[in-house]
Automatic annotation (TrEMBL):
Keywords: Metal-binding, NAD, Oxidoreductase, Zinc. It comes from Sphingomonas aerophila. It comes from the Bacteria. Residues 12-368 form the Enoyl reductase (ER) domain. PROSITE patterns: ADH_ZINC. One of its GO terms (biological process) is formaldehyde catabolic process. This is S-(hydroxymethyl)glutathione dehydrogenase. Its cofactor is Zn(2+). Has high formaldehyde dehydrogenase activity in the presence of glutathione and catalyzes the oxidation of normal alcohols in a reaction that is not GSH-dependent. In addition, hemithiolacetals other than those formed from GSH, including omega-thiol fatty acids, also are substrates. Also acts as a S-nitroso-glutathione reductase by catalyzing the NADH-dependent reduction of S-nitrosoglutathione.
Amino acid sequence: MKTRAAVAFEAKRPLEIVELDLEGPKAGEVLVEIMATGICHTDAYTLDGLDSEGLFPSVLGHEGAGVVREVGAGVTSVAVGDHVIPLYTPECRQCKSCLSRKTNLCTAIRTTQGKGLMPDGTTRFSYKGQPIFHYMGCSTFSNFTVLPEIAVAKIRQDAPFDTSCYIGCGVTTGVGAVVNTAKVEPGASVVVFGLGGIGLNVIQGAKLAGAQRIIGVDINPDREDWGRRFGMNGFLNSKGMSRDEVVQQVVAMTDGGADYTFDCTGNTEVMRIALEACHRGWGESIVIGVAEAGKEIATRPFQLVTGRVWRGTAFGGARGRTDTPKIVDWYMEGMIEIDPMITHRLTLEEINKGFDLMHSGESIRSVVIY
Ligand code: NAD
Ligand code: AHE
Ligand code: ZN
């Protein structure tokens, strides 16, 4: 079949809207009509050539929601007409990682996924006879995409596509980092670095968890109002401050250091600040941000010797097929908010504007509606 898609032909070049050829689902795969997709900073990072796994030409996008239109042989867990969210963190429930119960990082198809291929080692997308790579196993910047059955979460039919697509990455990552990874307890102090599409969801997760002090740090002063809207009760504009100044300010604002800090910037200097702003003896810093290829984190080992903990999280520690539908329920029941964070709705033709709005700090989340 044919599908309209925004293709990344090369790094650092705007996406091009073209008609691609799409092969139907093979055994264990499903064809999904994507109804809406968010634009996450990770898409921008890959498009900017900063991803060590980045491949071109490819169909980016990993924050979608849609409808199953066809199923391949042997597919049993979803049927035609089901509403689904594509999962860049699948859940096979059979691999060593899934069975360990210690991680959400299913390893069943990670190798081929990282090579832009379906589990059988081929692509379903092509353009003028040339293969086009998949991205993060999702490729939601295409109106139709093919996904492994283990990489779709079936969700309730009454959830709107244009908001629930955000649960495919940003919402689950931010809220999940608080409740699954850090396991923030009532009364805790939380500091969030970077109040964008992910950081605001960490803030609403911290509020949900009953954190008492919720402080945001950003270099964009407009983000203060945004943070307060979702439960933040203290803000630091760190623009122009040295590393030590930011650490000292945050430590002073949290009575000696935070119980939990979250990096939602992808900046390795900020990751260091987030660790060093933790309370001696028990503070935990959670790395959410994705850093550019070649970047490394550093701190004095004494920071860890004296009890601070550095952790990371992918997709908020959520087990894709099990937890994603629950987050959709939380949204539909009003436990968490999504609607105000969707600041821009775009057509596929306008998708490059979504990247511009992110880079200029004007948007929280842009969503493309097909
Ligand atoms: P975004 O562009 O919406 O937000 C980034 C925010 O960080 C902005 O508000 C920006 O002003 C702020 N910021 C930038 N530099 C800063 C600095 N030096 N100090 C303080 N604030 C600063 O991006 P997003 O979509 O929220 O994504 C945030 C990060 O999370 C990205 O690195 C993205 O790749 C990553 N991410 C990781 C996961 C995961 O599973 N681990 C999932 C989604 C996104
Ligand atoms: N490809 C990069 C790493 C990118 C990365 O860490 N991705 C996160 C999700 S970001 C979503 O917006 C993730 O899930 N990581 C776990 C995984 O298995 O990819 C690189 O450095 O090579
Ligand atoms: Zn993302």
